[in-house]
């Protein structure tokens, strides 16, 4: 493992614990690297960028069947936005959100049968007994007289336990390819050991019913784990998505180094904080993954880090050369990152400098790639539409 300078350690500590909206906020990368090393990026983009709309610290988005969008803003606003980005309505009915540090209103995903049910699933951080935690809720989108609201809002599942601090909530949502189950991520809240605690939901991927109950047949329930746990040993899981073959992919921030893309398999332990290809922020080394082969290893790893935010697997027609590949937003790296997926294998693809922190990546109904700037470190919080050059 390489030695880190004191200045780099200090910058990384500020990025992680200083109350900023996301890790990677500091001016230096939070990773094991030699002085002056930079993540490889390209200024030559194989797409053109069209601004669509501006937001206040946006976090996630999803498309409605009519091509309008729901966009979450960190402070707790859910915005219903016209397809061209020019019109917007704030959706009422969102519960109180604790937006300190890395907290806020986070992911938003439609129920697979949204056209009939109108159900919208969303995640957020809240204060409660013992501290703070991430929550998965849902409500029914209702529109009337130019207004929009979520009715019948229900809290489906909350973190176990609530703890002190404002970091590593995670809160990403994905419905399984067969639409039978719902997957939800909970970060380890910068507490390290809960990721290995069988009774805790922290540092885990959860498999749930559509009503937020632990799904029957979860692989670790009979071994004394919380019955919702699908996989464990994770850190800060900020992207989760299924590919066309039904494989579940996840990305998470490593500590000082070691950002990961993982293939999520039932019942597997991904090793954190026992192993990581990064080190602790105070300089203490963590054994690398290769030293403990009993833990499930990442498929792709970044040191220097990219500070990943958001994960999308492309299936559209505008970029046929990328169909089936994963796209990740880069926070510290201010990049759009592509990962080649090939069955259950993955490899690094392209990485393009976007000039702003990218929090979210989504595929639009038109096959374009949409990215959200998170608004930190001078970025404008814009929604950008990426299309092939000349289209």
Structural class designation: mainly beta
| Order of adjacent strands in the largest pleated sheet | 2-3-4-5-9-8-7-6
**Percent in helix:** under 10%
Average pLDDT for all residues: 90
In CATH terms, what is the fold-level topology? Answer: Neuraminidase
Could you tell me how far the N terminus lies from the C terminus, measured between alpha carbons in angstroms?
A: 46 Å
Protein name: Dehydrogenase
Keywords: Signal
Domain Glucose/Sorbosone dehydrogenase: 55-379
Pfam families: GSDH (PF07995)
Describe the protein.
By secondary structure, the chain is mostly beta strands. The chain has one domain: 6 Propeller (Neuraminidase). It has two helices and 24 strands. The strands form five sheets. Strands 2-3-4-5-9-8-7-6 form an eight-stranded mixed sheet, with no helix packed on it. A hairpin with a 6-residue loop joins strand 4 and strand 5. The termini are far apart. 49% of the residues are buried. The N terminus is likely disordered.
């Amino acid at each position: 493992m390489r030695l880190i300078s004191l200045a780099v350690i200090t910058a990384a500590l500020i990025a992680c614990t200083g109350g900023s909206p996301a890790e990677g906020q500091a001016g230096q990368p939070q990773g094991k690297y030699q002085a002056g090393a930079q993540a490889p990026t390209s200024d030559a983009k194989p797409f053109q960028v069209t601004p669509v709309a501006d937001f206040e610290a946006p976090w996630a988005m999803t498309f409605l069947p009519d091509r309008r969008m729901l966009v979450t803003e960190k402070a707790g606003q859910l915005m219903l936005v016209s397809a061209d980005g020019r019109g917007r309505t704030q959706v009422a009915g969102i519960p109180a959100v604790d937006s300190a540090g890395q907290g806020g209103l986070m992911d938003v995903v439609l129920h697979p049968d949204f056209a009939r049910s109108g159900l919208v699933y969303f995640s957020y951080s809240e204060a409660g007994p013992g501290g703070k935690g991430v929550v998965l809720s849902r409500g029914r989108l209702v529109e009337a007289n130019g207004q929009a609201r979520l009715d019948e809002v229900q809290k489906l599942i909350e973190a176990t336990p609530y703890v002190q601090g404002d970091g590593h909530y995670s809160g990403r949502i994905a419905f399984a390819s067969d639409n039978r189950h719902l997957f939800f991520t909970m970060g380890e809240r910068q507490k390290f050991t809960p990721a290995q605690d069988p009774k805790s939901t922290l540092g885990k991927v959860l498999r749930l019913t559509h009503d937020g109950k632990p799904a029957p047949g979860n692989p670790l329930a009979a071994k004394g784990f919380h019955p919702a746990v699908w996989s464990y040993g994770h850190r800060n899981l900020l992207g989760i998505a299924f590919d066309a073959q039904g494989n579940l992919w996840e990305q998470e921030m490593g500590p000082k180094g070691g950002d990961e893309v993982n293939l999520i398999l039932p019942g597997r332990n991904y090793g954190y904080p026992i192993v990581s290809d990064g080190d602790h922020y105070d300089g203490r080394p963590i054994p690398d993954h290769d030293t403990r082969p009993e833990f499930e290893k990442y498929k792709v790893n970044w040191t220097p880090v990219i500070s990943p935010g958001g994960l999308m697997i492309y299936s559209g027609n505008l970029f046929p050369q990328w169909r089936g590949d994963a796209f990740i937003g880069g926070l510290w790296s201010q990049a759009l990152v592509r990962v080649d997926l090939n069955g259950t294998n993955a490899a690094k693809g392209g990485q393009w400098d976007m000039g702003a922190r990218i929090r979210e990546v989504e595929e639009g109904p038109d096959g374009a790639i949409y990215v959200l700037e998170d608004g930190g470190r001078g970025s404008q919080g814009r929604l950008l539409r990426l299309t092939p050059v000349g289209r």
